[in-house]
Amino acid sequence: MEISLFQKCVFEFLGTMILILMGDGVCANVSLNKSKAKGAGWIVVTIAWGLAVMMGVFVSGPYSGAHLNPAVSVGLALAGKFAWSAVLPYCVAQMLGGFCGAVLVYLYFKDHYDATSDSPEVILSTFCTIPAIPNKWRNFLSETIGAFVLVFIILCFATTGNTPEVGMGSLGAIPVACLIVAIGMSLGGTTGYAINPARDIPPRFAHMILPIKGKGGSGWNYSWVPLVGPMVGGAIAAGLFLLVF
Q1: Which residues, 6 or more positions from 88, have their beta carbon under 8 angstroms from its beta carbon?
Q2: Is CB count within 10 Å lower at the N or C end of the chain?
Q3: How many domains does the chain have?
Q4: Is residue 176 within 8 Å of 67, Cβ to Cβ?
Q5: Which is nearest to 4 in space by CA: 88, 89, 84?
Q6: In this predicted structure, what is the pLDDT of residue 168?
């Protein structure tokens, strides 16, 4: 059965929503007051993010290729592995999914957000990324390199596949989960490794508009870093892939 572009976008939306629900969910789980998982640490966060991506891939992979990330969609299009006509619809679906996933996290942890109302930075960190050491251009470099690793390895994985859709879903869920965990454990400590505009910008917008007690500002002066850095990293990965392969 042929799957329409609209149906593919629906699954990109659902996969990204699951990714953010579980990914931002672990950030809330280990950070918010009175959570039984509070203080569980970086290892839990990185493994859970890998599993969150894996679950998103299981949801959308068979239908859309499971890009779940505008940097992946643009990178694959630049590498000639994905139709440019589908890039914008995929990106819109991913961003909407990221927003809805973040709203669900807020609803799920509402009581714990209320209990953390005296820590606005902790609240913000459960929605979007915050650099460990604010230095925007170095933070930008971190996000660029992280996204480069993500997209380049996805493209390298895909060279051994034989599927009509090229994306994270074509690789199988387990290699993708390992890739996300590896990036987080190796490169994530500087910025929180957004490496995906849909992981940062829509949840940041949700933080801005939701009635969260004691939330503070949404850090929009930093938001260009997790937006532009991953897109640049994905483009560089595509260029190197075309040069090498």
Answers
A1: none
A2: N
A3: 1
A4: no
A5: 89
A6: 61
CA separation, residue 91 to residues 25, 219, 242 (Å): 22, 22, 23
The answer to the question of residue 213 being in a domain is no
Q: Which domain holds residue 141?
A: 5-208+219-244
- Two tokens at 71? 């940097």
Residue 85 included in any domain: yes
Condensed to tens digits (0 to 9), the pLDDT of residues 41-58 reads 999 999 999 999 999 999
Sign of CA dihedral 224, 229, 235, 239: positive
Tokens of 180: 């996300």
Q: What is the DSSP letter of 81?
A: S
Residues 172, 185, 135, 240, CA torsion sign:
negative
pTM for this prediction = 0.94
Q: How far apart are CA 144 and CA 165, in angstroms?
A: 25
**Degrees to nearest 5, angle at CA 12 with 10 and 17:** 95
Residue ranges in the chain whose pLDDT is less than 70: 159-172
**Ranges assigned E (strand) in the chain:** none
Q: Domain with 97 in it: what CATH number?
A: 1.20.1080.10
Question: In angstroms, what CA-CA distances link 142 with 7, 172, 213?
Answer: 34, 26, 32
Cα gap 143→186, rounded to integer Å: 13
Q: Is residue 48 one of the residues assigned to a domain? A: yes
Residues 6+ away with beta carbon under 8 Å from 203:
20, 24, 98, 99, 101, 102, 105, 127, 128
